[in-house]
Amino acid sequence: MVGGQGALSPIAALLYGVSIMCSSVKYNTRGPVLIPRMKSKHRVYYIALFSVVLLGLIATGMFQFWPHTIESNSDWIAEKRSVHDVPSLKLLPDSPIPERWDLSCRMHTCFNVYYCGFNPKNKVKVYIYPLRKYVDEYGESVGSMISREYHQLLSAVAQSDFYTEDVSRACLFLPSIDVLNQNNLQIKETAQALAQLPRWDRGTNHLLFNMIPGGPPDYNTALDVPRDRAMLAGGGFSTWTYRQGYDVSIPVYSSLSAEVSLPEKIPGPRTYFLLSSQTALHPEFRSELEMIRAANGESVLILEKCGNYSGGVLAQRKRCYKNAVFDYPQILQEATFCLVLRGARLGQAALSDVLQAGCVPVIMADSYILPFSEVLDWKRASVVIPEQKIFEVYSILQSIPQRQIEEMQRQARWFWEGYFSSMKAIALATLQIINDRIYPYAARSYEEWNDPPVVKWTSVTNPLFLPLIPPQSQGFTAVVLTYDRVESLFRVITEVSKVPSLSKLLVVWNNQNKNPPEVSLWPKIRVPLKVVKTAENKLSNRFFPYDEIETEAVLAIDDDIIMLTSDELQFGYEVWREFPDRLVGYPGRLHLWDHEMSKWKYESEWTNEVSMVLTGAAFYHKYFNYLYTYNARRHQELGGCAYELRRYRHELLSGQRYREGAYQGDSSEEV
Q1: Positive or negative torsion for Cα 487, 489, 490, 492
Q2: What is the percent of the chain where pLDDT is above 70?
């Protein structure tokens, strides 16, 4: 068609041509006119030709427009399918080598945040370099093939929300050069290969993953490959090589624990109290462990490599004690505490095995930076003891309450499932930590990093319904009311922050004429610290049900209570867990009727009886904050006397009170 109606499509034109051919056969009154035989052959030929072309066009159209999926999430994955055919890059002897590494690097000095740009989803974008084969001047390969573990790591990143194919949008660059295991590397050539990366720029915004650093005889705790400003996600950092806030300490992946499925075991007492399963221990460590076993009997099990297994997978999955053979890592589930000692390297794959088994790791490796310690609260899942106290380890562990041990067993298993169980888990946790640094306003909270899914956010349920039993592992929120005693306040914060079960610390700033100290002046603690400024100077502000209180347990403590230790506070919390409907505190008071004076008498001296517990240092359920605030506002008009009235109201409602004799070491009184 012409003249404004447009040309015919190829398929329409073909159909139009066929119809013309068919209509060209002449008819008369006696039927069709016979066509010569030669013309009939030509007609059949053309019809067949046009039919083939027509089918080809239809097939092409269906392929172009039919819905289908093509994996386009990474160039390197496509090249991985034909890894032997990837492009080669020659490294000459005089190829440039990066600087060793900059120990002073921090996010604000060596990371270019402007690469990240504006991102409405608050996600860093990671670009993975395509695979390359590096050869020397003679064409010989100078690098090892990519390992299975690094392939899994790159695959996880490429299939995540962090990945981008557009190098111009990338905030972080991930080389396809495998440096997980330094034992497999040629140091100089690997450094030259890094320097050849198109966007290297002294390693700015580049991330390297390494789990086995160093080598004999020094066994450095960080990767020896010169890397300039590149960030390092390393397994086995020490305090000397870890650049805080820049590098990321990651686990040493245990392929054994990933291959062996261990069902989760119910927390509780186990067959062995303390177990050691590492096979390459220093002789001094092993002799000291044998002495601990001799002193404590069969509750301690010291395993070693089996002599009748020469090597291979079978040798890795067996441990022996004298003539007894045990399956590994299954035997770890039979122990309450499992030792993780330093070897030639600080980072040990045994830590992953122990966590998977739900055994509480007892970590004795001085200066070791624990995996993901930037966000994970290891006090909730492990016991860290200095190496010099190895002979005291048994008595230290015996002092831990059984309920706390069970919480640590749950937390250990959760850490493994969330952050240790696969290369994918390790990779995504690393990127999330970096993401939180770049977008701090959208960072994960302490609870999101540390609370198992089973108990996460359970505290936001209706607070007017008191649970029959306390939650499993939420911890408590400390609420400190203060006015102007900053020095004393900071001492209280520092001491309370040492309590293992502390989940959050809330400071109620009751001074409307003076602002709180600057952020940089506050103590640096491991849990979230929130400051709430009140509109009026009321003593009752400490009992308001703030949204920041997400735990069931609340510790009300004055800003001048500096005599309580972290152990005493932890003990008080454990008692409250046994009696969550009671007021559990330290200073007790007594009210009684004075017959001579014919009036009530208030006794502050220590006696064998108490009728109320002061909330200057006491644990209670947050339900009573709601009750006090919304059902008993008249208390606020009574000033300081409201404290006593509130305590007595609490005790009348709960029917009971509980006092801790922490100040003078006396036995607790229950009235």
Answers
A1: positive
A2: 80
